[in-house]
Amino acid sequence: MMRHQMLKVSLRQRTLAAITISVLLLLGMVLSGLWIGDEKLGINPAEMNEGPSLNHLFGTDWLGRDMLARTFKGLTLSLGVGILAAFSSTMIALVLSLFASWSEAIDRIVTWLIDLFLSVPHIVLLLLISFAMGGGFKGVVIGLALTHWPSLTRVLRAEMLQVKTAEYVGVSKKLGKSRLWIARNHILPHLMPQLLIGFILLFPHAILHEASITFLGFGLPSEQPAIGIILSESMRYLSTGMWWLAVFPGLSLLLMVALFDILGQSLRKWIDPFHGQKGV
Amino acid sequence: MLLVKRIAFYITGKCIKLAVLLIAVSILSFILVSHSPIDPVQSYIGADITRVSPEQRDNIAEYWGLNEPPIQQFLNWGKHLLQGDMGTSLIYRSPVAEVIAERFLASLALMSVAWVLSGLFGYVLGMTAGMKEGTWVDKLIKGYCFTLASTPAFWLGLLLLMLFSVWLGWLPIGLGSPAGILEEDVTFMERLRHLILPAVTLSIVGVANIALHTRQKLVDVMNSDYVRFAKAKGEHGLKLLWRHGLRNISLPAISVHFASFGELFGGAVLAEQVFSYPGLGQAVVEAGLGGDVPLLLGIVLCSTVFVFIGNLAADILYKVVDPRIRRGEI
Amino acid sequence: MALTEVDKGIPLLKVEDFALSFRMYKKRLREQRMQVIRKLNMTIHEGEIVAVIGASGSGKSLLADAILGILPDNAVCEGTLFYKGDVLTGDRQERLRGKAISLIPQSVSALNPLMKIGKQVQTAVQNGNSKIRQRSIFQKIRLPEGTDNYYPYELSGGMARRVLTATAIIGNPDLIIADEPTPGLDPQSLQEVTGYLKNLADSGKGVMFITHDIDTALKAADKVVIMNEGKTIETAVAEDFTGKGEGLRESYTKTLWNALPQNEFIPISESHFKNEIEDDRKLKVNGLAYRYSNAPYLFKDLSLSVNPGEVVGLFGYSGAGKTTLAQIIAGYLKPDNGTIEIDGRTVSRSGAHPVQLIWQHPEKTVNPRWRMRQTLFEDGSLDRELLNDLGIKNEWLDRYPSELSGGELQRFCLARALGSNTKYLIADEMTTMLDAITQAQIWHAVLQLVKQRHIGILAISHDQHLLWRVSDRIINFDELVKS
Question: How many domains does chain A have?
């Protein structure tokens, strides 16, 4: 009995641990990516096509470049793009949902916009925007920013409607508070946690989509060591059996995306234990 | 009688919605495309000047209304669209409508196999997890789904390609059919062999969403007042699950699965690229890379209709579930 | 327990030192153990109706779940349950529930919304031809033919209650647990329900009647178990609840009994209000009409008035549209027609409304993210004297709403509503969710404040006794709508 209780780690501790560990790992990834200089990414004809070894944990490619360094650089790049895109999308979502709370007409317009953007397959829309911007870094960031807000806006709008119709907001109105006061004191504080969590949970999507359209050839230019580029290049060497070119970079991308997901989910649990009664 | 009227009303409403949607999407995509540094007409003609005969050039100029303001160009395009003429594809040198029709069929085969498979597996996994909520089975399935949700679809395709085609050599590396054989001579089995890997990739990715949704819904139902009362009545085990779980979850689950057509299409674009499968997804990538504006716009509209149909099916299913709708009281 | 248990033989159900707690997660995932029931003792014999009485939210429904063995996984139980003398284990519960022990749930939400009624009732039949059994029981309980083909949403409130009862008794159980079967019912429906329960008891079954309303309980029960803070305070026979409660042993029970509006409550003051003001200084509602989009009119041409310093009781049963009226007068809803004037003028839309509404559920009317101090500040400044009068303790100011009880929260809501601008209060079932003692305390404070500040009150309730106590005059909502 005693032992059982000692071994039992509470949900709070587990959640906090998950948050800490994912933040640390993500920080580690980014810092090492930033720390890697250009010399590490250089061509080294002496070490071409080497499999994973202690010297090169992820192996080297057909130009003798260290895949570990390229992968980490690529992840940092992905993160940068992800931050820009997720931040802009979150801002769009916040502004649109605040607008939607103003009047029913605007709400209908916002809802229609959400439906419009969700009515074209996400990848196709990204492709179209990237095409319109002439591809490259700008095209990716703008494309990601313009296509990731609908789902978050939907969530925020629903939250907003819920607060807006809450009895305590009605009471506040009848106590003579202005709409602005209510927006600032009741609605915004309620939305902030949702916004933060939404922002973090947008990351995985943005990063995955960035990698996808880069892989398709619409994203970051091919001289950048982006994960999408690395993976699309690896396709050419698949039949030669150089599996490490695809496996490790992809796995690292998966890890990063999963870490952001875990971070977001744990934060949500911590801030707002939704079905908190369940003692799982 | 009332029901017929309501259905007619519903259909008209949805048709209007689709029309408005298509107009909005075409305006939006036309604006995007015309802002692109790649001018639709110039790229068309300039791409390979020697292969464009003066006659063709005139055709194109007539189609788009060269030198006219963008609004006029858009109206020209729209007029042709309404007449069923989507223009001529630059890369494929044939009418866009034909290209899309042929490619769409190939994609449809891929997507429907993947859709059915992921639906079945996702549903079963979700039910299992929901039934055993909180146990290690549940945690395993949940973990599996969350991992899948973080997995880049194209990377998964690459892994499968490496494993089954390069190492094991069980399945072909790419293309919808073996090279060097005439289209008519390709056997059904050959086609199937080329379909397997992309379809498997696509269905593995699609499982996560439906499984997590089914699980959550089942958990909600099991905590509902009516399951409490059913338990109090002495119902238990599989019977309880059958009467109250499956009944209340199944149609909504299928509905959610229909609503995921957008992601399905996106996944198909990536899978087709990895496996060089000659479907609509591959065509849209090539159209984008090659500056083939008519094809690009055509596919955008086509995929919009595809997603709309999925959402429509979802909506109808939701309505069918509701006994009030079935009794014709709303 | 000096009751005559010995000569009744082995009880049908015996609950011994029962305790129940939950593992819960609060904000920031702090694990908490919520003790719902601390120490509960009771027995039910065959042919007996035992009422279990506790305030709303005191975990009475969970007692039903515990007896049936259908508690959620995160519940922890202590103590022992005996059924017909033997310990009620999980195995036995599984065998008995639906057969020997059955449940009458509170509302129609206990029916599967996508399954026809007949089918749902039939699933409760363990052996025999379920269809015939279902038909005969529907006849017996006077459900119209064809009801079995209905979906739950097609049932009226009364039919739903009968269906639930039918489901509970179709398996011919020995012990029936009725979980709050009478929420805010009109006397006729109440009579019907209590009639059923009595019939069941007369045919030799044991009935456990869970409710928060002593008055209702006494209409049916033989024995009453009073719970407070999760403990059995006293088990008394129904006859003890007479007079000033001389037959009751515990002081809490006595206080509770005497706090009932029909008993001591607050000494009725002579109607302090003389109907002499004939000028415009009053809340005047004229010709109100309202309906929800396509539904029939809740009321057309409804008029009433409240004078300053007067307490007007508005009486009506649940579902009649009283709450809608309250929200219209307080400016939450716009009427389709009619005017609301205060001192001869219509109310401007901006600024603090001179008519403040006190809602039935105080926990919904305060921002859950705010400490109580901030909630009070929403109305301006802290009026120490007012807080004192309402019995608000200083240390409550720094707590969050989730850390206070319903009664404590309602005091805050009153304090917030009694700002300097407020001329009228509408108390919409203000104390319905509270126990009788708290109800009496709050009304006591409110009536004094109202006199001091010359504020008019429109008190809305389904509780006639309460309105008799607090009001200067009473209006019947039904008559108001009809006229």
Answer: 1
Question: Which CATH number is A183's domain given?
Answer: 1.10.3720.10
ipTM: 0.83
Q: How far is A258 from chain B (nearest CA, A)?
A: 5
Of the partner residues A120, A133, A250, the one whose CB lies closest to the CB of residue B303: A120
Which helix (H) or strand (E) segment holds residue C303: the answer is strand C299-306
Q: Token match 């709409």: residue?
A: A179
C99 reaches B (C-beta below 8 A): yes
Residue pair C48/C222 in contact by the 8 Å Cβ criterion: yes
Q: What angle do CA C373, C379, C381 make, to 5 degrees?
A: 65
Provide residues of A within 8 Å CB-CB of chain C. Answer: 10-12, 15-16, 166-168, 170-172, 174-178, 186, 189-190, 269-271, 273, 276-280
> What is the rounded distance in angstroms from the CA atom of residue B80 to the CA atom of residue B286?
23
Q: E-strand spans in C88-215? A: 101-104, 175-179, 206-211
| Domain extent at residue A105 | 11-44+58-279
Which residue in chain C has the smallest CA separation from A268? C28
Can you name the residues that pair with C475 across neighbouring β-strands? Answer: C314
**Residue in this structure with the two tokens 């690395």, named with its chain if needed:** A230
Which residue of chain A is at minimal alpha-carbon distance from B155? A250
Q: Which two tokens stand for residue C112?
A: 């599967």
| A213 assigned to some structural domain | yes
| Closest residue, chain B, to C62 (C-alpha) | B228
Residue C57: CB atoms within 10 A of its CB come to 13
Is A125 a member of any domain? yes
**Residues of chain A with a CB closer than 8 angstroms to some CB in chain B:** 115-116, 118-124, 127-134, 204, 208, 211-212, 215-218, 231, 234-235, 238-239, 241, 243, 246-247, 250, 253-254, 257-258, 261, 278, 280
For A185, residues 6+ apart whose C-beta sits below 8 A from its C-beta are: A172, A177
Residue C232, φ and ψ in degrees, nearest 5: -75, 120
The shortest CB-CB distance from A131 to any of B263, B296, B308 is to B296
Residue B253 CA, chain-centre distance (Å), reads 17
The 8-class DSSP code of residue C146 comes to T
What pairs with residue C460 in β-bridges?
C314, C428
Residue A238 in domain: yes
- Span A142-168, pLDDT tens digits: 999 999 999 899 989 988 888 888 899
Within 8 A of C421 by CB-CB distance, chain A residues are: 176
Ordered per-residue pLDDT tens for chain C, 483 residues: 444 445 567 888 999 999 988 877 776 777 777 788 888 889 999 989 999 988 776 777 888 889 998 888 788 888 899 998 888 888 888 888 888 899 998 888 889 988 889 888 888 887 778 888 888 888 888 888 888 888 888 887 778 888 898 888 888 899 999 988 776 677 788 888 888 889 889 998 999 999 888 888 888 889 999 888 888 888 888 888 887 777 888 888 888 888 888 776 665 555 555 555 556 788 888 888 888 877 788 888 888 889 888 899 999 877 678 888 999 999 888 888 888 888 878 887 777 889 999 998 888 899 988 889 888 888 777 788 888 888 888 888 888 888 888 889 999 999 999 888 888 999 998 988 888 888 888 998 898 888 888 899 999 988 888 888 888 888 998 888 876
Query: If 0-12 CB within 10 Å is exposed, 13-18 middle and 19+ buried, where does residue C187 land?
Result: exposed
Instruction: Count Cβ atoms below 10 Å from residue A139 Cβ, excluding itself.
Output: 22
Amino acid, res. B289: L
State in Å, rounded, how far the first CA of chain B is from the last one.
14
Interacting residues of A222 by C-beta distance below 8 A, sequence separation 6+ = A229, A233
Q: Answer yes or no: is A274 within a domain.
A: yes
B–C interface: beta-carbon pairs under 8 A = 71
Q: Cα–Cα distance between A259 and C387 in angstroms, integer?
A: 50
Residue B329 CB coordination number (10 Å): 12
